[in-house]
Write a structure and sequence with these properties.
single chain, alpha+beta, 3 domains, three-stranded antiparallel sheet, 236 residues
Length: 236
Amino acid sequence: MLPDGKLASNANEFGQSQWLANVEGCSRDCKDCAQPLPDDFEPPAYTSVCDVITAKDGPLADCVDRVDSKQYRDDCVYDMVLNDGQKEAACGIISDYVAQCQRNGGCVKSWRTRKFCWMKCPAKMMYSVVAPGCPASCLAPSPSANCEIPPSEGCVCNPGFLLSQDRCVPLPRCGCKYNGRYIVSGENFYPDSDCQRLCLCRGGMVACEDKPCTGKKSCGVRKGVKGCYAASDLSI
């Protein structure tokens, strides 16, 4: 948007409209900037993948009147031409368009395919066009009824798995809640300030034993983890 309220015809025009002062070494001309497409430009056939943005009978039809679909499509065509037809250029624009549409309450249907803009997910996870904003996790196995984050594209745990920090695990391998902290299953930790008792989280249960630091090791924090370390380790 230009200062006068009109839309800029290209990025260069917008950049120049933000010029504050003439400074030595600065220029209004961007020699390395990509130039806008000519008015009579005929988009190559490969840019047809961008048509999904404005198609009123396509998977993103509900987005057309919720977001500036024409601008997104023009940007999609421009980026594809600029990147010699690489589909990845279109994927970024379409993904942004979908995200904005969903934030505006739009209903998005599946538009990705294995050959076009497919979203790869980590192990035990799968792609969903409407991933919940508050996914089921080891700390909250049931979906939150008061979630204020709208659904969006993303990866969700496979059926039978719950989110444990950044990965999905079956319920028996969920971690533990201890003094307000979430501890991953299998992790040892010292809950006290002077490393007197060592605890282990296993399958949702915490077991502790007296195990203070011995020898030349002392209680300290290394890389954010409290434990018994040699003096040389604590200096890292």
